[in-house]
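Q: Could you write out the predicted structure for this multi-component system? I'm mainly interested in how the pieces pack against one another.
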Amino acid sequence: MSEFSTLGIWVIILVIAVATYLIRLSFIHLFGRINQVPPRVKLVLKFVPPAVLAALVAPGLVTPSPDVAAMVIDDRLAAGIVAAAVAWWRGNILLTIGVGMAALWVLEFGPALVF
Amino acid sequence: MNEDFSAGARDSIGILLGLVPFALVFGIAADGAGLSVAQTTMMSAGIFAGTAQLVTVELIGANAGLTIIVITGIVVNLRMLMYSASIAPHFTDYGKRTRAYLAYFLTDHVYAMSIAEYAAEARSRDKRLYYLGLGVSIWVVWVATTIVGFVLGAGIPESLNLMFAIPLVFLAILVPAIEDLPQVVSALASAIVAIAAAYAVAEFGLPAGLDLLIAAAVGIAAGVTTEEAMDR
């Protein structure tokens, strides 16, 4: 549960929505005056999706700890590797979520059913 | 209904199959972070960008600072600058007002599908109507499914670990987005720094969300450096 005030959350939504709209509008509006993203900016933008997404995925698959050996033994990491393989193979969001969740449930609840 | 608009709507169906689970996960996550149904709906309707919305509710749930949340949400959407620049030449015939509302629907999928359709000149579809067919269908389903997710969210038992679907959604977008070695380096560097930074943030009580920004910055720098080294 968040400690944000209702107003705080509305401010966040409004500011991101307006900024996102202005990003979308940028070149569509300016075309004729500025027609190209500068190459340097383009190079940086190319790495925004992989960098941001990887930073979002990684801490969700392990519990960050200085003990790397203990950290990598995690059901979520194993399920995530299976899901990554599915994503690479099929590129399908629904299938990736389905297989990833199923893998986690097998790892979490499977042993209790078998033993 | 206009034939070109219908063609866009029809072509959106394949995309919607992937977006429905994403929207459900977002709705559930928004409920979990304590947002109201009005706030959740306005996020989908106003921001209309899944990754940014999911990151934002995650950070709200983690009580990150307002500035960090806003910066992160905007950085995630900066890629749309490229879509805007790429699609702009196709919209030059339209007036200012038309371009203003077309821009609103510019998402990853609307961009990718429209550009592919515009390249197939043999079909000579009306660019505006095809684009709107895609954009409006995706918008309606996105917003509606978000609300369904929000309502469903409350009824799902915690033991199912459904929140694990959040990193899975990001993973499902990340993997196909990686096209070359510098992007692999960027993702790996970011992942490693993200884990270390998440530990540091928890351990030293640093502002939540700072780990994400640091990791993304290091990942981007690693990617740029690798690409420049390879070009040399």
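A: Regarding packing and overall arrangement: DSSP finds twelve helices and no strands in chain B.
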